[in-house]
Amino acid sequence: MGSQVKKYMTKEVITLDYDAKVTEAANLMAADKEYEGYVIILQKGKPKGIVTERDLVNKVIVGGLDPAKTSVSDIMSSPLVTVDPEDDLLKATQVMKEQNVRKLVVVRDEIIYGIITARIISQNVQDYVDRSIRDIVRWTASLGI
To answer: How would you classify the pairing of strands 15-17 and 38-43?
Structure first.
């Protein structure tokens, strides 16, 4: 019952290499038309971490680091908190709550399928609830309840 993450996730993700500088990450975030405020960090093509706006503020600005000299690998949040594309949205929200994050990278076998954010979930919660209610009604009707 419910809806899978793959139906709601954003398929296009912003990535940077492990050795890139923080300035590059900030420039990519600023250029992002959807403005999700993250960059996924890859090492040898595999997802290893994420840099968010919160990381820029708390680790770079507050930490007094030089963004032109600091590598994204030095400030990224790692290991990545992920969900599978087949996982239900309810599981995604539980993982977000348990891990205290607002963004989950959608990964299977070290391949990035997309990203699901708290914003995406909040924008689609009504659709999710409607689908769940329809599923429950169909299920109970099939039982003759």
So the answer is: parallel
* CA-based nearest residue to 74, from 94, 51, 40: 51
Strands 103-108 and 82-83: parallel
Chain segment 60-111, per-residue pLDDT in tens: 999 999 999 999 999 999 999 999 999 998 899 999 999 999 999 999 998 9
Say if residues 76 and 50 touch (Cβ distance below 8 Å): yes
What is the reported pTM? 0.81
Query: What fold characterizes domain 5-142?
Result: CBS-domain (3.10.580)
Backbone angles phi, psi at 26, to 5 degrees: -65, -40
Q: 140 is written with which tokens?
A: 């109970």
Does residue 59 contact residue 12 with C-beta atoms inside 8 Å?
Answer: no
Q: Answer whether 103's CB lies under 8 Å from 118's CB.
A: yes
